[in-house]
Design a protein that fits this description.
The structure holds two protein chains of two kinds. Chain A is mainly alpha-helical. Helix content of chain A is about 75%, strand content about 5%. Helix content of chain B is about 70%, strand content about 0%. In chain B, helix 3 crosses helix 10, helix 8 crosses helix 9 and helix 11 packs parallel to helix 14. Chain B starts with a helix and ends with a helix. Chain B has 15 helices and two strands. Chain B has one domain: ABC transporter involved in vitamin B12 uptake, BtuC (Orthogonal Bundle), CATH 1.10.3470. The longest helix of chain B has 27 residues. Classes of the chains: A mainly alpha, B mainly alpha. The interface between A and B is large, with 43 and 41 residues.
């Protein structure tokens, strides 16, 4: 298989992780008007929980327990620490979640140590999968498929359920939703848990592909911020398009000019900002908040 | 200079004069005091953004790293024979100001959350550039063994590593523990505080505050908020570059840590812990956190079963935000002001 296709598929897998994180950020932003710095930490917690459970009971229990554990952690944090900050200015919310992210990250370092760990896949999942000209590790393909299914489920939630309606309406005009009697507080708890659960599940599922460190989540979070800016804050399809664009661009750059692989996505972000400050799919009202 | 300004500067100068000796009995040392003065410049700069203009920048490490690396490269490559500290630091300031102008032009159009995300992302971009431009920055290893830069008075070079004359101060160490570097850094910090106070009191500062409180109204009055935000961003970038240059020439190295996300985060932590929207808050916050870091990480190294210093740093930060949102200096100030609303309230 040629290197281009290989890099493209790697970029697709990476991009899907960015999409999943960015979608979580976006739906939480929609209901809470909160950009959650701790979202990356949720990803890390999911990865570690998944790693521990998978090593003991196997991969599938890890995938089930990790998102539940992370969602519970998120709800506890939301109730105890975040709720008093709902009506404060966005800056202090950002500072608070930044602090929470730091504490979670350092707790992981305390418990699991700072060295990178990786889940060793059983040999049958390591084997390459062949489909025409494509030869690619079976697990990565399954991972990509799984994330796509997850995203479809989230989209159905947003498009077809009452809570999804509140979220979508909240992205447009949060105050109007409340005036019309939408219970945005209850929706926000569910959405916060959902966003965290997605991050936790993807973190657990990604741990056999990328090694896990306490800072792993943050390393994925910052490009996801880029994704959100490129795609447009509050837009599901913006997150999807932005995530895939960023992931594939970064991966192809790793192939053709490695030193610029990490920088190129910020160049992309700068270009988008000049040409279309609200992001590719964003609406211009959202950025002035 | 108004009497209020003079009083604050004298008070601060006095504090800075006793500071390196005051921390001696509690595990501090003058070298730490010098680093604190230098980093406090960066925190004061961040507070100009966060406190005055309401712009939360998570990318200050870019300007700090810029100042540090440019100063270090200038000393190492352009003038290894006669390393001129002032020229090197000025070079660092020029480049970091230019970087702040380019990035500022992009980011001041955006607000709040968006602004924070963008500065964070551009900060990360700077980090990766520093890490990858190995020919200039030596990558992960950083630039080591930078020649000791001098301050030229006429043709005579003054070495800032010269200690003061030896005078025994009992429990507070010895006067000779303090090098000229500390005095230099403290004077610069004092000048920066003076500059920022003057700026805050000027019409420029007033307009920044107005923009922070209500941008639409300030636009209606006829100001152009973007210009003011841009100017604040560039000034903060320049001051942060100054801090970076001083830090590199003091540490005699420029390492990739200067440009990473933790550095940006630490300026935010220093400022918030000390007190946003207070003149001396960032300085106090820098001193408290850096002192605790120094003593705390030494102590924690002996107890591997305890979490590392950064865990405690994060916890302190969260606790301050939740319970002490005005910060150390802000809380202190608030207590001293009489609360007229309470005094006038009728008891039921």
């Amino acid at each position: 298989m040629d290197a281009f296709l290989q890099a493209f598929l790697n970029g697709l897998v990476l991009g899907l992780i960015y999409v999943a994180i960015a979608v979580g950020l976006t739906i939480v932003f929609g209901t809470l008007r909160l950009v959650n710095f701790a979202h990356g930490a949720f990803f890390s917690v999911g990865a570690y929980v998944g790693l521990v459970v998978a090593n003991k009971y196997g991969l599938v229990p890890g995938f089930i327990i990790a998102p539940i554990a992370v969602a519970i952690l998120a709800v506890i944090l939301d109730r105890i620490v975040l709720r008093p900050f709902y009506n404060k200015e966005p800056t202090s919310q950002l500072l608070l979640t930044f602090g929470i992210a730091l504490v979670i990250q350092e707790s992981l370092r305390w418990i699991f140590g700072g060295t990178a760990q990786q889940y060793t896949l059983p040999p049958e999942l390591m084997s390459p999968f062949t489909l025409g000209p494509i030869v690619y590790p079976a697990y990565r393909l399954a991972f990509a498929l799984g994330v796509v299914l997850l995203l479809v489920a989230v989209w159905l939630f947003l498009a077809r359920t009452d809570y999804g309606l509140i979220v979508r309406a909240g992205i447009r005009d949060r105050i109007m939703v409340q005036l019309l009697g939408g219970n945005i507080t209850r929706a926000s708890t569910i959405v916060f848990a959902l966003g965290a659960g997605i991050a936790g599940l993807v973190g657990a599922a990604a741990s056999p592909i990328y090694s896990v460190e306490p800072t792993t989540g943050f390393d994925f979070l910052v490009p996801s911020f880029v994704v959100v800016v490129v795609g447009g804050l509050g837009s599901f399809w913006g997150a999807v398009a932005g995530g895939l664009l960023v992931g594939i661009l970064k991966s192809l750059m790793t192939l053709y000019y490695p030193p610029a692989a990490d920088v190129i996505i910020y160049v992309l972000m700068a270009v988008v900002l000049i040409v279309r400050p609200q992001g590719l799919f964003g609406e211009s009202e959202v950025i002035r908040q | 200079m108004s009497r209020g300004t003079l009083r604050i500067l004298l008070f601060t100068a006095l504090g800075l004069a006793v500071f390196p000796f005051a921390i001696h009995p509690i595990g501090g040392y003058p070298g730490l005091a010098t680093q604190i003065c230098i980093m406090a410049i960066g925190a004061v700069a961040l507070n100009l953004l966060l406190g005055e203009a309401g712009m939360l920048s998570y990318g200050q490490a870019l300007f700090f790293g810029c100042g540090a690396y440019v100063s270090a490269i200038l000393v190492q490559r352009a003038m290894p024979q006669h390393p001129n500290l002032v020229l090197a630091v000025l070079g660092g300031i020029v480049v970091s100001t230019a970087a702040a102008a380019i990035i500022g032009a992009l980011v001041v159009r955006l607000y709040g959350i968006y602004f924070a995300l963008l500065t964070l992302a551009f900060g990360q971009m700077g980090y990766f550039i520093v890490e990858q431009a190995k020919d200039w920055t030596n990558g992960d290893d950083g630039l080591q063994g930078i020649p000791d830069a001098l301050i030229y008075v006429g043709t005579a070079g003054v070495d800032l590593q010269t200690p003061l004359p030896a005078v025994d101060l009992g429990p507070f160490g010895n006067l000779s523990d303090v090098h000229l570097w500390y005095i230099f850094a403290a004077v610069i910090l004092l000048l920066v505080i003076w500059f920022v106070r003057t700026l805050n009191g000027s019409q420029f500062g007033e307009v920044l505050g107005a923009i922070r409180e209500n941008e639409d109204r300030s636009r209606m009055i006829g100001f152009v908020p973007q210009l003011y935000r841009f100017a604040a961003f560039v000034i903060a970038g320049a001051l942060t570059g100054l801090a970076g240059g001083l830090r590199a020439l003091y540490d005699l190295q420029a390492v990739v840590d200067y440009a990473n996300i933790d550095r940006s985060g630490s300026f935010v932590i220093y400022t918030v812990v000390g007190g946003v929207q207070t003149l001396l808050g960032p300085v106090v916050g820098t001193a408290v956190i850096m002192y605790l870091e120094n003593v705390g990480s030494g102590f924690l190294a002996k107890y591997p079963q305890l979490p590392g210093w950064q865990w405690f740093e994060g916890l302190i930060f969260v606790l301050v935000i939740v319970f002490l949102p005005a910060g150390i200096v802000g809380t202190f100030k608030r207590k001293r002001k009489p609360n007229f609303a309470k005094m006038l309230a009728v008891k039921r």
